[in-house]
Write a structure and sequence with these properties.
By secondary structure, this protein is mostly helical. The chain contains one helix and no strands. It is rod-shaped.
């Protein structure tokens, strides 16, 4: 009987903890991911502006790097 009760307790605790984390943490993670993606887009725009400005004033003879951002569709 003790073994069955222990198994039940472990299963119930695991299920509760998993539901708690999924319910309370996933929305926050998604919001933070969207905020980070917004910041990355702003950074890329700024870097592009800087590279264009450097090309206009010819501050460097080194070819300008290109900045690319790929998003993972699984997020």
């Amino acid at each position: 009987m003790d073994v069955r009760w222990t198994e039940f307790e472990n299963s119930a605790t695991y299920d509760y903890a998993r539901r708690f984390v999924e319910t309370n943490c996933q929305p926050q993670v998604k919001e933070e991911t969207l905020n980070i993606e917004k910041l990355v887009a702003q950074m890329l725009t700024s870097m592009d502006w800087i590279m264009t400005a450097m090309a206009r004033v010819k501050m460097s003879n080194v070819p300008l790097p290109t900045f690319e951002h790929s998003t993972n569709s699984n997020t």
